[in-house]
From TrEMBL:
<dbReference type="Pfam" id="PF12801">
    <property type="entry name" value="Fer4_5"/>
</dbReference>
<feature type="domain" description="4Fe-4S ferredoxin-type">
    <location>
        <begin position="156"/>
        <end position="183"/>
    </location>
</feature>
<feature type="transmembrane region" description="Helical">
    <location>
        <begin position="140"/>
        <end position="163"/>
    </location>
</feature>
<dbReference type="InterPro" id="IPR017896">
    <property type="entry name" value="4Fe4S_Fe-S-bd"/>
</dbReference>
<keyword id="KW-0812">Transmembrane</keyword>
<keyword id="KW-1133">Transmembrane helix</keyword>
<feature type="transmembrane region" description="Helical">
    <location>
        <begin position="85"/>
        <end position="106"/>
    </location>
</feature>
<feature type="domain" description="4Fe-4S ferredoxin-type">
    <location>
        <begin position="28"/>
        <end position="75"/>
    </location>
</feature>
<protein>
    <recommendedName>
        <fullName>4Fe-4S ferredoxin-type domain-containing protein</fullName>
    </recommendedName>
</protein>
<keyword id="KW-0472">Membrane</keyword>
<feature type="transmembrane region" description="Helical">
    <location>
        <begin position="118"/>
        <end position="134"/>
    </location>
</feature>
<feature type="transmembrane region" description="Helical">
    <location>
        <begin position="12"/>
        <end position="40"/>
    </location>
</feature>
């Protein structure tokens, strides 16, 4: 927690991600850093370095949550396995859809997705007009950018809702990055005991 206090301005990266994506959706590929950097740090440090001090969304939830205190307890199913693994399966499924649909767009087998979607399937009637136009970009890259933006928007929105309903870092209990990191560390610990 002290690490989070030292990095409390990290929420600006979350806001910056959405601002850059609104300037030009292709900048949403920067979201891949939030999907890969935690695992690099996990492998390098052997602990949840990202979750414990560098996650910009956690910083956002803590910053917004310091003015709101809910008396509701986080449901047990969040801290146990039901919801946690359900969210993990859902987002692994999302990554699979993102990957294969991008490959299909690149091969000309399907049209690109050109609007954001909430929870993969719910199209939002929002057309993002690039305020910072780029030269010609391949359609598969545009599709990938919208998919990444949609995932980041979905997880951030769910995190904000959970922060309002329960405690600021409730999302962290079911976050796929936290769950996968925990599974890795548990497996590593089990291997060292043999």
């Amino acid at each position: 927690m002290s690490s989070l206090r030292n990095h409390r301005l990290l929420y600006l990266f979350t806001l910056g991600f959405f601002l850059l994506s609104l300037l030009n959706i292709h900048l949403a590929v920067l979201g891949l850093l939030c999907m890969t950097l935690p695992f690099y740090l996990l492998l390098r440090d052997g602990k949840k370095t990202w979750c414990q001090g560098y996650c910009p969304r956690s910083s956002l939830y803590m910053t917004l949550g310091k003015h709101h205190r809910s008396s509701r307890k986080i449901p047990r199913s969040f801290t146990q396995s039901e919801v946690k693994y359900g969210v993990l399966i859902y987002f692994l499924f999302s990554l699979l859809i993102m990957t294969f649909s991008t490959l299909r767009v690149a091969r000309g087998q399907m049209a690109p997705m050109l609007i954001p979607r909430f929870l993969i399937f719910i199209p939002l009637p929002v057309h993002l007009v690039p305020l910072l136009p780029f030269p010609e970009v391949p359609l598969w890259f545009t599709h990938l950018s919208f998919r990444i933006f949609s995932m980041m928007m979905t997880t951030t929105t769910l995190g904000l809702i959970l922060a309002k309903l329960y405690k600021p870092r409730t999302w962290c209990t079911i976050c796929p990055v936290n769950t996968l990191s925990g599974m890795y560390l548990m497996k590593k610990k089990d291997a060292s005991l043999r």
